[in-house]
Amino acid sequence: MIWNRRRGRKCFLWKLPLWLRVVIAGWLSFTAVFGFYLTNSASLQHPDTVSYRGHVKLKFPITSAFQESEKHQPATATRRNLIIIAHGRSGSSLTGDIFNHHPDVFYMYEPLQTVERTRKYFKLDYNSLVQKFLTNILLCDFREPIFLADIESYYRRPLHPRISRAIASPPLCPYHMSDPRWDFRLCPKLTRETLGNACKNYYKLTVIKILMKRMGDKSLEKTLSACDSQNINCKIVLLIRDPRAVIPSSLSVNFYKEEGGTAKLGTRMFSYKLCKETEDSLHFVKKLPAWMRRQVQVLRYEDLARNPLPEMRRLYKFAGLSVLKRIATWLNESTHPTKSRSNMEIKESPAAFTVDDAQAAINRWRWKVHPYEIAIIEHYCKHVMQLMGYRPVDTSHELQANISIPLVNDDYEAKNW
To answer: What is 96-163 written as a DSSP string?
Structure first.
């Protein structure tokens, strides 16, 4: 109202004495200049004030109260996990046992069997259910009652083939498995709180081993989508074994059935499928950016069998675990047994570890499998064999039978990826 003119009359300001008008004008000018200075000074001093296209300034509301809450609020811990991925009959049980014996590891043997057994109770498709279940495990989240009930019955059986030492030990059971008083019937029933608390607070690392045949779409990429969370840190061990050992062994345990008589159509189809899945997984790993590639370790079973202790150290270093003398002793006895399994049972439950002459296991197929079947496998798996350093026998009976000649090369293409 000061600066308006009404009906031709002078504004009230002009009726004031000259000296008072000068004081008012000076004060208004000083206020405008000082205000402009403060505005620009504040924008320079506070990095939380940003300019959008040089016009609008956005200031992030960081109050002193918010800063205090940030200072005292603990950050959400990222859960460390390791997933062993392999085809069946590839030595994944031995590899899993190496982690199962470590006191810092919460180990689960083939948890995707739970998905297979319980899928009928869910409306989700199998692939979505696999991702949901894996994500829950990697976060130590066992809130789903159907999953929890299956875990209870699966891991608490008296002769479970690869019982989880973490689920069968304190605080989930009163005694350790090495204690003569240990009995699965003494272990209280699992609850979401007890199992989740044990996983999160008693163990630094969760390790699971899964078979490719149970993976969503048999795809390594889709399975790893379960790790796509800011609270999950995943590392992968991709375990591969000579297909000339894997495929006949798979037939012996009914992973597939032979068809077509002498044409061996069952072996042909299974060889093509298995080796294509392996090759696709290897090429997926190869294409990963360098920082992601460092999260994946490709392991040949043959290297683990020939040099178990160095390979165990490499696995533990990759996983961030310390090497314990008693585990090294166990692994050496398990892969180079001088005692029968019955004698080794005295130490602890026979369900808790694998015993086999690993060196003999490398070459067992060479005297057990007919050369005609080997020729079929080599035909369908030649690319994978080349990538992984497996030397073909090319229908040579002499080369196949002479176990003094190694068929596993120390240097191979995938090793240098």
So the answer is: HHHHHT-TTEEEEE-THHHHHHHGGG-SS-HHHHHHHHHHHHHTT----HHHHHHHHHHHTSTT-TT-
